[in-house]
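worker-03 picked up job from queue 'complexes'. Input manifest follows; two sequence lines, order preserved.
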Amino acid sequence: MALEVGNLLQAMIGAGEGLGTEVWDKLKNFAIPELHKIAVQIAAIAEHITDYTPEGAKALFDMQVKASIGVIAGMTEMTLLAVQTAINAILSAVRSFVNGAIGFALV
Amino acid sequence: MHARREPALRRRMAGFFILSFLAMLAAACTTVSLVSPYDEQTEQGLSTLYVDTSNFVDRMIAVHGQPAGTFAQNQQFYSDAMARVDVMIARSQGFAVRDTCPSTQFLSRLTDSLPADVRGHVGTLPPGDCQTVVLTALRGAYGDMRDFHRAQGDRGIPESAREIILTGGVGSLLRTAIAIQAAKHVAAQQAGAR
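worker-03 finished. Artifact:
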């Protein structure tokens, strides 16, 4: 029964190494641009304030606050998804390693 | 000779224990779920709602300042949109694997320290997992859009509000909710391919 821990470690690292990149890509390509768009729209409310009633402007502002919270919560959901994917890939690597080392499907 | 065998035996024993530990780990955790699964119905519902909302805003802008552009003539849109998001919230709650969202817990602690008037704009942060928080915020944003339309009276929705609603606000939340479903769809396909 060959037990090459080094091979397992490489498989586990390989399964988990995409996590940082994926989270950063989501942050760079999704969350930051969305928060930027919201910031621009908050400025636009002030710029066009004469188009709106005071209550109307307040409602538009409240809408942008909710959007900001939603983008942050959405980014968190996608981060948790990336962590979930990485953990399951590591568990899969462990399973393959154990079954490969034993020679039959133990787990 | 007997003494030379011992290190080899120890290595084999250590290997056996590591292997047993890994086997138990893999057997105990077939897969880990930190987020609710992909929901095709929600993804399709969000896409349709995005199209309907965009069309509605453009139609309202075209008739703003006219009776056909007032809230009174168009309030049904808001009831329908909010009811459609309510169904998505119910599905999200039904499929949830967590009952909290780490970032809203953090934001909640943060807003507690803000002055009361600022805190009033943020309001009470929605409960539930992160996907449910996004959908609840979306429902709230439709409520703000309705309040805006109503508050505008005869003015209706002017051209300058288009990007504020569709690029920021409601549009941003719709894109966020769609992006979550798209990411889950890709993850589910990748997991199926492994």
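worker-03 released lock.
The radius of gyration of chain B is 26 Å.
Chain B has a mean pLDDT of 88.
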